[in-house]
């Protein structure tokens, strides 16, 4: 496996006594959960050798390792979006580091636009499948055969047993298909109509590169999306990041209690 990945993994291993098997990526509105981790060991991304980090002011970039809702977790606080200019292979590197330190499962949350008109802003949806419309793949380039196969299967990346337990615990939980675009512009109304025809219920600008990298290394995922807004053209009002953040903030308690229930189902 790559020296860069090994070095980063060794650095993290040297900082903690217990290595978590569960990782969390927190999307808009849920960042506060990183501060609720008990007995937390915080490692800024820029301390970890070869780890990507953002130099943008106000951008949180840290690993938080400790106990959340009774489970040992590693929280990636600060995400890497393609629209920020990150190369998809950097996202792959981060997932490879998690694999090397022993992560087996990942809970991914995000904010998304609702394409499905039966959703309402503030609904939280269990993602049952993804469509990659980013026209990028984090696995492009030479394959590291030690980490995973050249042509990974995508069927097995979802932790269906975990998802089934969560659905049993929360029978009213909605399910949907998430389509990923690079952004950062929001979609046009015509794109939303096209995406609906493709079978998508939600649209967002994250998650899919991480999921593909997880499929490669055999980390199983469960994804929860907060539908923060109706997608472009469904309502007459223009989309704004302020609206997304406002709704994500409004439902953060509901969202975090769902994260709690999800962690309890592992
Ligand atoms: N489109 C893309 N990404 C998003 C949206 C949206 O409408 N809302 C939140 N993230």
UniProtKB/TrEMBL annotation:
It is an enzyme of class 2 (transferase). GO terms for biological process: nucleoside metabolic process. Residues 21-263 form the Nucleoside phosphorylase domain. Its EC number is 2.4.2.1. Pathway: Purine metabolism; purine nucleoside salvage. GO terms for molecular function: purine-nucleoside phosphorylase activity. Belongs to the PNP/MTAP phosphorylase family. This is Purine nucleoside phosphorylase. It comes from Fervidobacterium thailandense.
């Amino acid at each position: 496996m790559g020296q860069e990945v090994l070095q980063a993994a060794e650095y993290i291993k040297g900082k903690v006594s217990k290595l978590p098997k569960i990782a969390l990526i927190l999307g808009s509105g849920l960042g506060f959960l990183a501060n609720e981790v008990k007995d937390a060991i915080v490692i800024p991304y820029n301390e970890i050798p070869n780890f990507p980090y953002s130099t943008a002011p106000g951008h949180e970039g840290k690993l938080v390792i400790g106990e959340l809702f009774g489970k040992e977790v590693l929280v990636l606080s600060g995400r890497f979006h393609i629209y920020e200019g990150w190369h998809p292979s950097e996202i792959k590197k981060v997932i490879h580091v998690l694999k090397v330190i022993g992560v087996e499962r990942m809970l991914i949350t995000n904010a998304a636009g609702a394409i499905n008109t039966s959703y309402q802003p503030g609904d939280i949806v269990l993602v049952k499948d993804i469509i990659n419309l980013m026209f990028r793949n984090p696995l492009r380039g030479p394959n590291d055969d030690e980490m995973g196969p050249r042509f990974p299967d995508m069927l097995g990346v979802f932790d269906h047993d975990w998802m089934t337990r969560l659905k049993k615990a929360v029978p009213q939980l909605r399910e949907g298909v998430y389509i990923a675009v690079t952004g950062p512009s929001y979609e046009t109304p015509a794109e939303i109509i096209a995406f609906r025809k493709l079978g998508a219920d939600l649209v967002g600008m994250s998650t899919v590169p991480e999921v593909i990298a997880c499929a490669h290394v055999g980390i199983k995922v469960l994804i929860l999306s907060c539908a923060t807004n109706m997608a472009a053209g469904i309502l007459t009002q223009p989309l704004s990041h302020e609206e997304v953040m406002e709704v994500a903030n409004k439902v953060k308690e509901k969202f975090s209690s769902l994260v709690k229930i999800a962690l309890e189902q592992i």
